[in-house]
Each structure stands twice: as structure tokens, then as C-alpha cells.
Amino acid sequence: MKKLNVGAGYMWFEDGWETLDNSPLRSIKKESFQHYGKCWDSKLENFSYDILFTSHMLEHVPHFRLEKTISEFNRLLKINGTLRIAVPNLEKAAKAYIKKDHNFFKKSIHYSDHMGIGASFLRVMISPGSQNLVFSREMDEILGGYAHLYSFDFLMLKKLLEKWGFSNVKESEPGKSSIKEMQQLQYAVVDKKKYLMDYNFLRKKSKMNSNIKIKFGGFDKKSNSQLIVEATKLKNVKYKYDLEYNFNKISRFDSIEFKIKIAIFRVISKAIDFIFFLLIKMRINKLIKFFLKIKN
């Protein structure tokens, strides 16, 4: 049985599972079970997985690639394969905002009240990060980076999943998967001790010791503010651009002109990355030689 965690990060491990992530660190060094790539274009083998899990990854995907991502899940899974998705819950967040329930938002790692509860609510949907870069229209400066770019309620996910070949779409609770293995809640291993996931606790530990080594495992976060959906793959649905919602096709910037620009940017970016990699390596080698001289 083959199992895949999409967007697992480079520190997650569960026996018998493979992972897919586009973390820059993963592109440099990978374990045998780790795959580097995009969630909408993984390059992994067709219909090869029995279970696919993704936790708080889908909200980082621009809606321009949302349907392609769901179709990629379909392509990777076998017929009758299980898909489990966890994302921030748009409906619960909206209700908390209307009720002025600050405690709902304080539980999030993305919490901010710099402009009141409205800012807290907005950060559920849009938050700063490094996953998606934003260029100026003139393409002469990087304005910043985003983490969260989208949010979902149950109906949104149900429509998407059914459109792209899934059935039996049901809302679930943390640790209540139909697959026994995925009932294990997300945890962290710190100094060889296992703790249920708690970001505040991990932040305190890291501040106390910056060299602390942390590994992760398990599946659902222990949080009632999220939306968890489980579905079964009913049929194969091959991705076609024409099948996407018209709304998702607006402002795609997919003209030949922009494709040429991106191709050139990619070559230059990789060249600069390689140069910096060499410089860092040379600097490290020089430091090693320097310390060896002092020692001798």
C-alpha cells in the first residue's frame, strides 16, 4: 500500500509514507521517501497511491492552480483511494468574526490583532509567507510573499472534489479518519520526547535552545477551528484547462510574452542560486581551513 503526504515539510516522517513538498531545503537534500515538486505538477506516477493526505497546504495554493491541484490528487490516487484534506474553516472563522470571538483567532499560529478582529479574520485567508512571491506590475521589484491565499467552507471543497472525480465527500473531525493509521493526531518529537502539536510550546522550546532538533509526525492537528474532509476517488478525470471554472481563468497572465519572461527568469534565478551555493560552500571551506590552522 502506497501513501503520500502532500505539503508535509522536510521534517515530517511516518513509517511507510512518502512525502511531496517544494521546500527549498528539500531540493538540496532528500531522503528516499521525500519527493520535491509542486502539488499541481508532482511528476509522480499515475494512479500509484492508495491514500493521500494533506494538512493545511491547500490554502497556500493560488486559486489559479486550485483545480489543477485537485485533479493532480485524482491522477495520483488509485480508484477507491482515500483522500483526506485539512484546511482553515472559512465558515467558523466568519461566525467568530461576526460574534467578535477573539479567542477563536488567538489559537492560530497566524494570529494578529494589529488592526482589530478584522485583521485576525483576514489572516485566516491571507497571511505573509514565502510560498508565493508578488511582483509589481512592471516586474521591477518583489513586493513581498504570501502564505495563505485562499480559504474554504465544506460546500466549496465538496463541489471541487466531486467535479474532479471524488465521491462520498464527508466532513470529519480531528483524529476521526476512516483509516485507522490516520487517527494519530499530529505530534512533535523534541529531545526524543513526543508531544501533541502545540506551536506556542515549540516556540518556547526553540527560544530556550536554538540548536534544538524537532521532528514531526501524525496527521490531523488537534484543533476544532479547522475543516477536515475525507473523500473516495470514484473515477479518473484527466485535467483539461477547459474544464476549469471561468472565474479561475481570469487574469492568468499566460500569454506567450509572460511565458518567455518566466522562462528567462527561471534560468537566471537558478544560475544565481548556484553561484550563492558555491560562495557559501567556499566560505565554509575557508572557515574550516582557518580553524584547522589555529588548532595546529
List keywords for this structure.
single chain, alpha/beta, Rossmann fold, 3 domains, three-stranded antiparallel sheet, 12 strands
CATH architecture of the largest domain: 3-Layer(aba) Sandwich
The number of distinct helices, counting runs of at least 4 residues, comes to: 8
Count of DSSP strands: 12
Cα end-to-end separation: 55 Å
Q: What's the CATH class of the largest domain, please?
A: Alpha Beta
Mean pLDDT across the residues is 88
Strand content: 15-25%
What is the succession of H and E elements?
EEHEEHEHHHEEHEEEHEEH
Q: Output the strand order for the largest sheet.
A: 3-2-1-4-5-12-8
The overall number of domains is 3
CATH superfamily of the largest domain: Vaccinia Virus protein VP39
And the CATH topology of the largest domain?
Rossmann fold
Structural class: alpha/beta
What's the Cα radius of gyration?
Answer: 21 Å
Low-confidence stretches: none
Largest sheet: 7 strands, mixed
Tertiary shape? globular
